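Dig into my protein:

:::
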Amino acid sequence: MLYDILFGYFAPVQTAAIAMAVAFLLTFITLNMRFGFLPQDQGRAFAINGALSKGKLRGVGIVFVIDFIIASLLFLPLSFEYILYLVFLFLMMLSGYLDDAAEKPWNEYKKGLIDLVISVLTMVTFLKYNGTEVSFFTLQFNIPYVVYFILGVILIWIAVNVTNCSDGVDGLCGSLVIVTVMSFAFLFSENLGSMATAGQILCAVLLAYLYFNCSPSSMLMGDAGSRALGFFIAILAMKSGHPFAYLILSIVLIIDGGLGLIKVSLIRFCKIHIMNNIRTPIHDHVRKNMEWSDTQVVIRFVILQIVASIIFAALK
């Protein structure tokens, strides 16, 4: 692979920069191809300004996730563990794409079962190659294997679904993911090793996507993109050795997408009605009730996440 060739001529930082440049160009070119197999959005009836998305290419996450996988195979030192993560990432993306392309959207239970299977396989792989010692700021402690397994499955499920729910405003999900991934890559570069470079490559891919997804967008990542991005964040959090950092480094994603999940779950399973005056996802609340523009939502949410990441870095 190119990694073996480049490593002999360039420093790691230079190799990472080359990988990011190639990943950006590859994604920019392939997204411009506007493949015929990509579905068109039908407009979301219950979303704020959902009708504006009608006719746009949807599910382009299948393109940029494959581009990310190709760049990873070319520019990263490959271990069997990482290859398995790429396989699970592809499967998570594929499940989202098939939902994007389906005439009738999949129900939550079908998607939940797929999430569970992929999450379980991922945790079996993770715990085969990694220990259960974690850090929480300056504290270090071991979590029992079974407890870590269960918490890891929960983390993956949460990360996938809150990221998915946050994809409703042009440029929002991709921008927030870049801040989160780069925060992990910068703060825990020593622990992450080549996974930090993988995060940088993913951010380069997302920058190419955001070129087309900034408001007013011409294409949407769909579940194919958002579900895969959430999955990658969860893996990054666990590989960093600081999985609880996810709660702060993804706090805006969690609040934006997570409150809706809590609200719906309580109504459906416990018949408890809360937050009746709050629209979810939160990005719909601030657009409808507070009259924020799409640009204001993206910029303000990104600023809040950057501030949260800075605070975490100061306390780390």
In short: The first helix runs from residue 2 to 7.
